[in-house]
Write a structure and sequence with these properties.
With 297 residues, the chain is an all-alpha fold. It is built from 12 helices and 2 strands, in the order H-E-E-H-H-H-H-H-H-H-H-H-H-H. A hairpin with a 4-residue loop joins strand 1 and strand 2. It binds fe (ii) ion (2 copies). One fe (ii) ion binds next to helix 7 and helix 8.
Length: 297
């Protein structure tokens, strides 16, 4: 574990530093994801990894005792939440988190310019970023399949929430950039807690535990890079605004997934978000991810 090699994600940066970092990130992201398959919203290297996982499946030693509890409750709770076991709650929370991501990226994909019409570095970066998010949704689906849930349907959110997600990418950058950055930060925070939850809940399922870590690693490494990349859009004032947004945005988002509060300490997630500085990120993840130069000590 590296200690104090990095500075807070909220460290201010000037325009020139941020421009240089966009150039650096663009280099990174192209080699990290490989070729973009725009029609399939996919990336060559990510596809290769998902195919590897699918070709070498791992399944639970003891299948879920009652998968119907998941299928009955994964969109909305029908049963009393308190009556549902922690493993099922962890899986419904993962579905719901990924579903929000999926709705958000579907809305954005149709609004942001495609690669042929991306003339700025920022537009190109955003297009690849969205393709990566589609890969995350597929990886989450694979996590659920690993737990024996192969009948999961990806359902739209309520019309109001779908509309909100569709408007979001049309909002001017100065307003959109802080929440877009904090959302990425929230993803990283949640994934680190989810990693811990795997170890806790899957003690008797070492193979599946290991596989879920591997699948979530693929996502987490990308998200760490996204945190720096989305932060790089923001000037000093926007960074102050972003820091103030961590608490309300985390609280609002997780209020919509009530089982998360039964599994993870939301207050701790808020604190982790506000204090995020890359120093707790394991070395093997850092080696594959990207950090803005001005966050390096
Ligand atoms: Fe993601
Ligand atoms: Fe992301």
């Amino acid at each position: 574990m590296a200690q104090n090699k990095f500075l807070s994600i909220f460290t201010p940066a000037n325009k020139q530093q941020r421009q240089d970092n966009f150039v650096d990130y663009w280099e990174f992201t192209q080699q990290h994801g490989g070729e973009l398959f725009e029609a399939e919203q996919d990336l060559a290297k990510k596809r290769e990894k998902l195919n590897y996982f699918k070709a070498n499946p791992v399944r639970l030693r003891t299948p879920l005792a009652n998968p119907d509890v998941f299928y009955r409750n994964y969109v909305d709770f029908i049963d009393d939440v308190q009556s549902i076991d922690r493993m099922t709650l962890m899986l419904t929370s993962m579905y719901k988190f990924a579903r929000h991501e999926w709705v958000g990226i579907k809305g954005a994909w149709d609004v942001v310019p495609d690669m042929a019409h991306s003339y700025s570095l920022e537009d190109k970066i955003s297009r690849v970023h969205l393709a990566e998010e589609f890969c995350h949704w597929r990886l989450f689906d694979e996590m659920l399949q690993t737990c024996g849930l192969d009948r999961v349907e990806w359902q739209p959110l309520s019309p109001t929430k779908e509309w909100i997600y569709r408007q979001f990418p049309k909002v001017p950058g100065v307003l959109m950039d802080p929440p877009a950055f904090v959302t990425e930060l929230m993803g990283v925070t949640y994934y680190f807690h989810l990693h811990q939850l795997f170890d806790d809940i899957l003690k008797d399922e070492p193979e599946v535990c290991q596989r879920l870590h591997e699948l979530l690693d693929e996502i987490t490494i990308d998200e760490i890079a996204h945190v720096g990349q989305r932060r790089n859009f923001i000037g000093p004032i926007g960074m102050k605004v972003s820091k103030m947004m961590v608490r309300p945005l985390y609280k609002l988002f997780f209020a919509d997934i009530p089982e998360v509060a039964m599994l993870i300490d939301i207050e701790q997630m808020v604190k982790d978000g506000e204090a995020f500085d890359f120093n707790e990120v394991p070395d093997y993840m850092l080696a594959q991810s990207w950090i803005p130069s001005y966050c390096k000590a």
